[in-house]
TrEMBL record:
Lineage start: Eukaryota, Metazoa, Chordata, Craniata, Vertebrata
Record organism: Clupea harengus
GO molecular function ontology, one term from the record: metal ion binding
GO terms for cellular component: Golgi apparatus; membrane; vesicle
Binding site for UDP-N-acetyl-alpha-D-galactosamine: F106, A107, V108, Y111, D197, V198, D199
Alphabetical GO biological process terms: carbohydrate metabolic process
SUPFAM superfamilies: Nucleotide-diphospho-sugar transferases
Gene3D superfamilies found in the cross-reference section: Spore Coat Polysaccharide Biosynthesis Protein SpsA, Chain A
PANTHER family with a match to the protein in the record: ALPHA-1,3-GALACTOSYLTRANSFERASE 2 (PTHR10462:SF33), GLYCOSYLTRANSFERASE-RELATED (PTHR10462)
Superkingdom of the source species: Eukaryota
Pfam family, one: Glyco_transf_6
Active site location: E289 (nucleophile)
Subcellular location: Membrane
Name the UniProt record assigns to this protein: Alpha-1,3-galactosyltransferase 2-like isoform X2
Binding note for cofactor: Binds 1 Mn(2+) ion per subunit.
Length: 341
């Protein structure tokens, strides 16, 4: 490095020095920046009347308002981006139909202390504001769940879960817990369910425009990548296996949802796949996320959320991200996962 910076041509030396330093210290950011330049496919539908509507207000979606991104899938599901929808129209429609929403979140081991309070507090500010919401918190230490002043019509329910020996099992077994709480509680009180990771914080509106029969989220790392670059499970022995010719998008398991009926089907299918893999001594590449991607490829979601609904600031600047509605928190996996083991 010292030799490069001392080349006789000052302009050449400066350029090489800056380039080298950038590559050495920012390789991940460089790659992500270049990935952001890969153009997305474009919506091929003409007008929102061609969409498979989750509800009547979807007719107001403006598919052509964002020429820089893909605003629908080839099977007719909208991909929700800032600028496509009228927030007031969605809020008023769901208030009139008395929509209520369940939000499930797991806070096991140190994840509870590190993230749960901020997650819930920010949800009170930004998540489905004006609608009845029930938070379903799953934890191994129920007595440590923070007491919060919730808005009218919103409540918190706490469920004790087993602390598994590995964080991978904690992640995968949540599918079983969600399936069971839908059967015992959610189906009697809420029309829709969202399932989220706790190590996130809301930073912008996450409202009724996100509600649909089956809702998936584009992963912030992969939404610009070509299909062959997506990290589906490639082990033919796993129930999550996807061949090279399979797949549409790569979905993030940190956020998924839909009607309670569809989420029940989704979580049961993933759980059965995980258990069958365990019986065969196999573990999918990205655990429950791999199984979720397999399910959503076979059963297309009716609604897809753009990465603004779960954004990682470490990706860096992207011109197509106009607002960040849910943000990843910084993580020290060594400390967090040691305690949970």
């Amino acid at each position: 490095m010292r030799n490069i910076c001392s080349l006789p041509s000052r302009k050449t030396a400066l350029a090489l020095c800056i380039l080298t330093l950038f590559v050495v210290y920012h390789i991940p950011y460089s790659i992500r920046f270049l990935e952001g330049l890969i153009p997305m496919d474009k919506c091929q539908l003409v007008g929102s009347e061609a969409l498979k509507l989750d509800n009547a207000v979807d007719i107001t979606l403006k598919l052509g308002s964002r020429s820089d991104v893909q605003t629908c899938t080839y099977w007719g599901a909208p991909i929700i981006w800032d600028g496509m929808f009228d927030p007031e129209a969605y809020d008023q429609t769901h208030k009139r139909t008395h929509t209520s929403v369940a939000l499930t979140v797991f806070a096991v081991g140190r994840y509870l202390d590190a993230y749960l309070k901020d997650f819930l507090r920010s949800a009170e500010i930004y998540f489905m504001v004006g609608l009845p919401v029930t938070y379903y918190v799953f934890t191994d230490v129920p007595e440590k769940v923070p007491a919060l002043n919730l808005a009218p019509g919103r409540e918190l329910k706490v469920f004790a879960v087993e602390r598994h020996s590995r964080w991978q099992d904690i992640s995968m077994m949540r599918m079983k817990s969600i399936m069971e709480v839908i059967d015992t509680h959610i189906r009697h009180h809420n029309q829709y369910v969202f399932c989220m990771d706790v190590d996130q914080v809301f930073g912008g509106r996450f409202g009724a425009e996100a509600l649909g029969d089956s809702v998936a989220l584009l992963h912030a790392y992969y939404y610009h990548r070509f299909r062959y670059m997506l990290t589906y499970d490639q082990n033919p022995k796993s129930q999550a296996y996807m061949a090279e010719s399979q797949g549409d998008f790569y979905y993030h398991a940190a956020v998924f949802g839909g009607s309670w009926q569809r989420v029940r089907q989704m979580t049961e299918a993933c759980y059965r796949g995980i258990i069958k893999d365990k019986d065969n001594g196999v573990e999918a590449l990205w655990h429950d996320e791999s199984h979720l991607n397999k399910y959503l490829w076979q059963h297309k979601p009716s609604r897809v959320l753009s990465p603004e609904y779960c954004w990682d600031p470490s990706v860096g600047y992207r011109s197509d991200i106009h607002v960040t509605r849910l943000l990843w928190r910084e993580k020290d996996y060594g400390k967090l996962r040691d305690k949970a083991n």
